[in-house]
Amino acid sequence: MTIALPRAALWLAGVISPATAAAQGGAPPTLDCTLGFEGLRAAAHALPGAQHEQAGGFEIIKLSSPDPDTWKVTIAFTTSGHPAHPAATLRTFRKQVTEVWTADSKACGYGDPRQFDILMQDMKSGDTELTNASRAEVERRKETRSPLNPAP
Is the separation of the CB atoms in 16 and 63 below 8 Å? Predict the structure, then answer.
C-alpha cells in the first residue's frame, strides 16, 4: 500500500537527505549543516513515519527503514538548557552482514565550539559502546546456537 505524501513533506524530507524523499527504503537521512538549526529541525519534523520524544536535554526524532533490518536513525536537537545548544546530532545504525548493528554519528554545532566538541566526543564514545554491545550480543547468540542449526 502506498501513501501519498504532501509535496512540502517530501521536499522537507529531501532537505535532510534527497534519497529519503525519493524512497524511504533507500539510504538513511543525513545532516546538511548549511540549513541551520531551525532548518534541520523543520526538515526532521516533516519526515514521514518519524517518532518524536524528549529526553536528557534533547528533542529526539527516530526513524527506521521500512525493512527493519537495514538502518535506523536517531536525530536529536539540543534544547535551550543543554550546554552545546544549539546543536543537531544524527546517529545512524546500520545492520551489517555479520548481524552486528554499527553506530556512526554526525552533528552540526551552532553554539559554543568547546561544548560542541564535548558533545561530539560523547557521541563518538557512544557509537563505540553501542557497536561493541551489538557485537557482543551477536557473539552470545552464536555461542547458544547449535552447530547443526543454520543461522536465521
Answer: no
